[in-house]
Design a protein that fits this description.
Elements: H1 5-31, H2 34-60, H3 73-99, H4 102-128
Helix pairs in contact: 1-2, 1-4, 2-3, 3-4
């Protein structure tokens, strides 16, 4: 089972929508300023789509944790942890750059460790049920809807 580039891109976009909303809400709660929160969230859209696409391509080359027809839970968890380490560093740096305060940046990034691990794991499990873009570069295998039974 291999993931197509289109699947990696679709996952990157769907995750970025979820992640950006989470980042905005956390940043707003911690800074108390919607404008700062919007700046942090908007900057992350660009950096994180690129980082996430690269993360997906690296994991597409790793065969550990792949079942015969979908990813296993352990693989989803390992991907969640490796992505969170990358994402937390990015969030911290962007938040520090925008707010000018390492303490606020640490609060935002630290809170995201918890929320994003849970959200990412759920995102991975949802995508594990969708077979579109697996096994072929063009999408779901012939004669299938792309959804797991």
């Amino acid at each position: 089972m291999t993931d197509s580039h289109a699947r990696s891109l679709a996952k990157a976009i769907s995750w970025r929508v979820t992640g950006t909303l989470d980042t905005f809400l956390i940043s707003w709660l911690i800074t108390g300023q919607a404008l700062l929160a919007g700046g942090i969230a908007a900057t992350e859209v660009a950096t994180k789509i690129v980082l996430f696409y690269g993360h997906e391509r690296v994991w597409a080359r790793i065969h550990w944790g792949r079942g015969t027809d979908r990813e296993l839970r352990g693989r989803s968890l390992a991907k969640a942890i490796s992505w969170r380490a990358t994402g937390t560093l990015d969030t911290f740096l962007i938040s520090w750059l925008i707010t000018g305060q390492a303490l606020l940046a640490g609060g935002i990034a630290g809170t995201e460790v918890i929320t994003k691990l849970v959200l990412f794991y759920l995102h991975e499990r949802a995508w594990a049920r969708l077979h579109w873009g697996c096994g072929t570069e063009g999408g779901a295998p012939a004669g299938t809807s792309g959804l797991a039974a």
